[in-house]
Structures are given as C-alpha cells and as structure tokens.
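User: Hey, my collaborator sent me this sequence without any context and asked if I could get a structure. I don't really work with proteins. Can you help?
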Amino acid sequence: MSRRAKLAACFVASAMLVGLAGCTGSDGAGIRVEEDQGFIDGDGTSDIVKPDDRESIPDVSGVTLQGDELSLADFAGDVVVVNVWGSWCGPCREEARALQEVYDKNSKRGVQFVGLNTRDQQAAALAFEDGFGISYPSLVDQSGELQLAFRDTLPPNAIPSTIVIDREGRVAARVLGPTTYTQLSDLVDHVVAES
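Assistant: No problem. I've predicted the 3D structure and written it out in structure-token form, which is a compact way to encode the shape of the chain:
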C-alpha cells in the first residue's frame, strides 16, 4: 500500500471515530449513565447500569491463547469480568497486576475473568500473560470481532476496557480505559452484592 493510500485510510478511520462520538451524562450521584452507544475515549471512567436497563451479553466464544475453546456462556450464573487488552498497549500493562489481584481476591466468590486479546501477536500476548502472572484465560480476538459483539450493550469501545457481567448474563458495569484495583474491586463488589 502506498504512503498516500495509508494516509487516506488513517484519515477515513479517524473520521469514522469522530463521527461516532457519543456522550455520557451523570445520574446526579456521580455515576456516569450511558446516553449514547457511540465511541468514547478511554479515560478510566466507570459506568454502572441500573438492573432494569441492562442488556444481555452477546454469544461470545472462541479459542484462548492456550488453544482451548471457551464461551462466556460457560460461566452462566457467575459474575464475569471481561477485559479487552493487547500486549502492545501501555495502559494494559499498567492495569494488568490490578486485574490479576482482583481476580485472585474474587475467584472463590463465583467471579470469573476472561480477557479479550485484540490485534496482537500470539507470542507477545503469551509473554505478556507470563510476565504479569495472568492466570485467567484470554480469548484471541485478532480482528476485534468479539469486542464488537458487545455493540448493542454497554460496549467496551477502548483498549483497554473492562466490563462486568451480572449473574443474569447482562452487562452491569464498564470501565473505558485503564482500571485500578480499587475501582474494579468496587464494581465487582457492587455487582456481586446484587445477587
């Protein structure tokens, strides 16, 4: 592809993202409530969806980095945390230890974690998991198709993004951008306490 064609492709992609710009508002209690399902930059802000407004998760399944078949449906009845990440992503490296710590704290409480490894090389992704001691599975999402499957819920539109799925299989919360131990732990505690 020529330099001019590459620049044109980048311009079109940027224009599409700007054209999809969404907005969020507050429910008055400091919790952001989604008003539009468009693209939002990942600034680490969390959203919690009221139980009556939650959408069911899509059918998300595939192959893990270790070559095993996995479906989110395998975790029916559990709270599930889904994190979109890539080894090439600086903020993903910043949040990796916090994600593993929250997983370690909650795995015996019926809380499952699944990564969506997107736009990555397998060797780099496996080295990332090994380097950060990530022990929960990650689905390979080279094309971003699994991430896009959430578009009719509260979509994880940034890399990294983290969503929390309630025990009824509905998207309950989301963090766009890097999360912290405290932020994610609080969201998981909130969703676990509902059940």
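In plain terms: The first helix runs from residue 3 to 19. You can pass these tokens on to your collaborator as they are.
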